[in-house]
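Readers outside the structure-tokenisation community will struggle with the description of the input data as it stands. For illustration, here is how one protein appears when written out as sequence plus structure tokens:
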Amino acid sequence: MSPRWNPNPDVRTGRHVVHSLHAHLVFVTKYRRNALTDAMLTRTEEIMREVCTDFEAELKQFNGEQDHVHLLVHYPPKVQLSKLVNSLKGVSSRRLRQEYASHVRRYLWGGHFWSGSYFAGSCGGAPLTVVKQYIENQQRLV
């Protein structure tokens, strides 16, 4: 399927797959400390865009506050979401601690930047009720 036949740019094609996978991710700073400044949020977005590019994913949307960030990521099916998350958190933590060392030390200690947990929600496409109904109707036709 070539791009000109596809009116939806979020639907991507591969050799054997057509996909549109989006995840809403939320990362919280360790101890929910207000460690992120506006400059750090801007830098965090840049770093996370680079990481996504390395995974052949796209950071569609980014925003955050002093103690957490939200990401909307469009990723290919060959990417394990948990590995993408580990890279996003690991690379951003390392770089932010290097580039903003004195600021980070005031708020965080022990070599950690992000909390060990995170939120991941799938999004996009049809609502579950519509998909369930579609599948039910397919079974009836067989």
About this structure: The chain has one domain: 3-141. The chain has a mean pLDDT of 89.
